[in-house]
Design brief:
mainly alpha; rod-shaped
Length: 86
């Protein structure tokens, strides 16, 4: 039960005093033992607060798209580029 409470604290973004002593393997094992709704809470927290799993190139491409710096794939492949780019 103590380990479940520790993971619940992690899911709520609270600092644990001894979290440095818990290995990733231990966290994963404890995660597996959580009820489905609590696993969902932890997963949601990780996805919302840690984007290290997303490649930097994808993040840059999303920034370009948000800023309007993109070209339709059909136009890029089949149309003649404007004169300054030839």
């Amino acid at each position: 039960m103590k380990e479940r409470q520790r993971l619940q604290l992690l899911a709520k973004n609270q600092v644990l005093t001894d979290n440095a002593t818990m290995s990733a393997t231990e966290i994963i094992e404890q995660f597996k033992g959580l009820p489905a709704n609590e696993r969902a809470q932890v997963t949601k927290y990780v996805v919302e607060h840690d984007d290290s799993w997303i490649p930097d190139e994808f993040k840059e491409a999303m920034q370009d798209a948000e800023a309007g710096r993109f070209v339709d794939m059909e136009a890029a492949l089949f149309k003649t580029p404007p004169p300054p780019l030839q």
